[in-house]
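#struct-help
A.M.: can someone run this one for me? Single chain, 400 residues.
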Amino acid sequence: MYLKTPILVLLILATGLSSCGKTAQVQAPAPTQASAPILTPSPTPEPTPEPTPTVQTVTFSASGDNLIHEGLYNQASRRAGGDGYDFTAAYEPMRSFYAGFDVNWLNQETLVNDAYAPSGYPCFSTPGDITDALYDIGFRVFSLSNNHSYDQGAGGIASSMEHWAAMPEDVITAGFYNLESYDNLAYQTVNGITIGYLSYTEQTNGIPTPAETDYGVVYLNQTDVIEQQMAAMRPNCDVMVVSCHWGVEGSHNVSDAQREQAQWLADHGADLIIGTHPHVTQDAQWLTAADGRQVFVAYSLGNLISAQAEPDNMIGVILGITFQKTTQPDGSSEIALLEPTLYPTVTQYEDHYSDIRVYPYWDYTDELGAAHGNFALSRAMIQQVLQDSISYPNVNLDAA
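D.P.: on it. Structure tokens below:
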């Protein structure tokens, strides 16, 4: 009895240890290890870009004498059917040209108002409806200082100023100044460029400044006043445009007085000088100011439109130019005047001064010239007048 139990235990142990003829092996689990971190390389920092200058531009046009004779306002009355005046047709051929510029400037040769009856030469008064047409065609800046500024006395000055003040806010005028302070200066900002406008005349047809007015023109011989105005304007604008109503009517020759005045204006801060009054074309050129700036002067743009009677009065030029402002990262800036170009225009009318209108030269035909009232006007004749009166090389006869 006592021997059987140990034998049975031994047999069970032996059988378990030799199961399937193999020895069972138990492997201990490997110790757990922490995962190694995945390293992402840091991106290479982009280099800080160098500050670059900012460049802004304004394309600018200047047109000559808008001389509204009786024939022009009479045809405008007929087109309006007796209810006001419709001047649009007179300028319509120029619409696409003016659309190509940011700013269009015009010498408004005659007083504009509705307080006085319309009148032509020698003492002009033009119906206020003309500014609707001028605004519609693209003009925004008007020079009002010329030899006809005093044609209707103090009342003409006041009514004209009142009319212009009622125009849209983007209309700029220069030429009638406060005769005590001379500080009502005209500025316009377009595309980040501020343009200052001054307008002066050589004479007012012998009519003195009316005693009853507080406003009037500044004459070109009032150099102390002009110097005062230019000094006040210069710090507040990028480009200073000065218009001068000067020279000899009907003469293509630039006078010594015009040249001397232009150089004086350049030396005192003008960037662009626009000449009007002779009613015919004169030369244009670059000047070097006392401080080394390059200043451009067009001595006479001739007429934009009129009902004058001589072939040369039919031929004008429009100045096109680009103002470029380059501003450095430190805030300093400089102005450049780029590619001044003269674009010829032709005033057309038929017999008895009918249907007066203005064309760009490239749209003017010899057929139109053959039908011109009072005289024939061929393209070849127009080119000859331009060649004889303008030595400045950049005259564009093709298209803007």
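A.M.: thanks! DSSP finds ten helices and 16 strands in the chain.
D.P.: also worth noting: The first helix runs from residue 4 to 17.
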